[in-house]
């Protein structure tokens, strides 16, 4: 049987394909209309989609079962000047290596004292470079394939429309032979004659076809996996088998990433004495249940847009800021000398000049520069998000808050808080360095304060 996203569905009681699918693509229609049923904008939720809520619930149940007893149960050149490119690249490295999530710290807590962390770090970085390079080759090859396929589909659509009006065009244009190869040259020659015939209605009949435009408008985020790769899989022999393998791989990657993130959260919670008598299964279930409730916003018609918002304003920027504070705390609050002494005690080798320079100067300055440039760029250009437009069957960029004026101050408050948090944290480093005992610096300050406050409110019986 053909895959559901390999052909366009038919109109009800008709042999004509659905127009939205015919004008876009089979995979785009299947993803935006049949799978997530995307709403027109961020402000229209469209209700919770039960099938997505069910999948989200099942996912969190699997995560809970796997981690409830702990770790043993979890198996172009100008673009270089764009600070957002560097932030996205840094975030990709963070996601690949698990940096700033807390998962590495949680997993490392199970290692023996003399584990060679230096060897592990070098090994994991080399593996990540290889896998990222290999994945890049595949991804851009598939993006190029999809761009050419959509271009040819667009040309076929225009040529079919052209045949219906060819007798009405100027004589010198009737005998022009248009092919995929000469389309960029010959179409501008014939288009003025077409425009003269249709006058202002041309845009309703013909589409703009360009491989470059298709590449620039390539899907990102979830669309990359659920539209671009699925369209490529449709073209493979035995597409049903490869489709099952691909989505099983996505499921395994998603669960594996979530296990690490949840371990980072749950391990910190168990280090707090207020949860000392709570069973791990119960606490893990509570965290998974809370995460499930928060995730329901992504199961609405506007869930795709909210996911992009979280990724842009919470995931990317948040990770970079956390990484910057980790570097500063290790190098200047705890002290790079003490940190080097700890490593020497563990592996019998003191970090060399390269590691010292990276920890103390190069990495903090690089991350700080990325954060500063990204914040400035965010203030200079109003934030937008891509939305699926049913009328034009394409992704359009909508300005956040353009429909609801009160949401613009809301975004402003978020941005101001980002800046204030950075200023307050930076001004606190000098105080922490003098007031916080060295033996307590390894514990996040906000967790210690929270633990002490809750202990006063809810004292545990000894």
From TrEMBL:
Keyword tags: Membrane, Metal-binding, Sodium, Symport, Transmembrane, Transmembrane helix, Transport
Superkingdom, natural source: Eukaryota
Subcellular location: Membrane
Residue sites binding Na(+) per the record: 96, 253, 257
GO cellular component: plasma membrane
GO MF assignments: amino acid:sodium symporter activity; glycine transmembrane transporter activity; L-amino acid transmembrane transporter activity; metal ion binding
InterPro entries listed in its UniProt record: Na/ntran_symport, SNS_sf
GO biological process: amino acid import across plasma membrane
Bilayer disposition of the protein: Multi-pass membrane protein
Transmembrane portions of the chain: 50-72, 92-110, 122-143, 241-261, 282-307, 313-336, 357-381
PROSITE patterns listed in its UniProt record: NA_NEUROTRAN_SYMP_3
SUPFAM superfamilies: SNF-like
Recorded family membership: Belongs to the sodium:neurotransmitter symporter (SNF) (TC 2.A.22) family.
PANTHER family attached to this UniProt entry: SODIUM/CHLORIDE DEPENDENT TRANSPORTER, TRANSPORTER
UniProt-recorded name of the protein: Sodium-dependent neutral amino acid transporter B(0)AT3
Organism of provenance: Armadillidium nasatum
